[in-house]
């Protein structure tokens, strides 16, 4: 709300800041030093550069809608930069009786006025029969270029409104859909204002049944630009109330075979996952103090490091001043110095 804490993992040092632009904002997505910020009091969204302080206002979003997720494909100076939102809009639909009544009104004559009064007197009761329908819609635009968002109904694009996790890979949007978590690629055409979906795989990620009896887990798809890989990270939890992460599995998508393959080693990179945003990033460990073959994540105030080779977990308390209360919003950023 008022202060922000930045922890440099490689230097093992934290910095407390009071950046006015970040006050009463939530971070939805980022690309390089460009942050997608949203007001906590409205759906006002814009891009803000953490280094240059430059700001790019986005077109207005509907005042009454729920912003579920957001992605930024590239920094604004990139010709392929686009921002896309998953928006849940609520629509009120009339039941069949209401629809029929509306159609019959055109055929009514003056002698039916008494009947009209009866219908109107029951209006409150008919309102109870109206249904609210949640519609999932993609809103997208090119920041600084479009004056309004393009929008398209999700169902019309992919034939399924059950959307899972998504990420940016090579400036394209990849998302898992349906009960089987099938990977598709979304192509955003800013000129036509249309989105096309291309299926990338015919089957879901094949996870071992060894941990199938655990009811709590989280999944992430993450791009690794340093190794040109699209990764699927499966986090399994245990302990009291199944809240403590304790095991990970990592898969890589094979674009030739069109399937997910188990990864035994990720080499000299580290994976960082953010539970709050259901997102993540990677970073090369060369020339840094970061642990290779590792996954960094947080739980409560603690920073954990999971070793993919030894399956061991270490923890530390990077920022002791952070409150113990729940509700912290933590984001991983890879910033150039």
TrEMBL record:
Domain KIB1-4 beta-propeller: start-end pairs: 6-85, 138-307
Entry-linked Pfam families: Beta-prop_KIB1-4
Region of interest (Disordered), residue spans: 92-130
Annotated InterPro entries: KIB1-4_b-propeller
Protein name per the record: KIB1-4 beta-propeller domain-containing protein
Organism: Solanum commersonii (Commerson's wild potato)
């Amino acid at each position: 709300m008022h202060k922000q804490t930045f922890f440099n993992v490689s230097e093992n040092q934290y910095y407390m800041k009071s950046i006015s632009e970040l006050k009463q904002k939530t971070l939805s997505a980022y690309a390089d030093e460009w942050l997608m910020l949203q007001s906590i009091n409205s759906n006002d969204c814009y891009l803000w550069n953490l280094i240059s302080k430059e700001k790019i206002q986005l077109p207005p979003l509907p005042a009454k809608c729920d912003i579920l997720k957001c992605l930024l494909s590239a920094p604004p100076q990139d010709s392929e930069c686009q921002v896309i939102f998953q928006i849940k809009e609520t629509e009120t639909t009339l039941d069949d009786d209401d629809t029929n009544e509306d159609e019959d009104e055109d055929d009514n004559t003056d002698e039916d006025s008494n009947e009209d009064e009866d219908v109107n007197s029951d209006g409150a009761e008919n309102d109870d029969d109206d249904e609210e329908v949640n519609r999932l819609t993609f809103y997208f635009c090119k920041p600084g270029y479009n004056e309004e968002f393009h929008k398209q109904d999700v169902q019309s694009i992919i034939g399924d409104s059950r959307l899972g996790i998504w990420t940016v890979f090579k400036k394209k949007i990849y998302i898992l859909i349906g009960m089987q978590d099938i990977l598709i690629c979304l192509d955003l055409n800013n000129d036509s204002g249309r989105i096309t979906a291309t299926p990338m795989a015919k089957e879901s990620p094949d996870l071992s049944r060894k941990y199938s009896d655990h009811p709590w887990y989280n999944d992430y798809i993450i791009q690794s630009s340093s190794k040109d890989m699209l990764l699927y990270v499966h986090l399994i939890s245990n302990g009291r109330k199944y809240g403590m992460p304790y095991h990970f599995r990592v898969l890589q998508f094979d674009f030739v075979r069109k399937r997910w393959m188990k990864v035994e080693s990720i080499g000299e990179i580290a994976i960082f996952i953010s539970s709050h945003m259901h997102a993540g990033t990677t970073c090369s460990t060369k020339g840094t103090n970061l642990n290779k073959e590792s996954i960094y994540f947080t739980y409560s105030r603690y920073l954990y490091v999971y070793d993919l080779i030894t399956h061991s977990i270490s923890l530390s308390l990077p920022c002791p001043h952070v409150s113990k209360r729940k509700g912290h919003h933590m984001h991983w950023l890879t910033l150039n110095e």
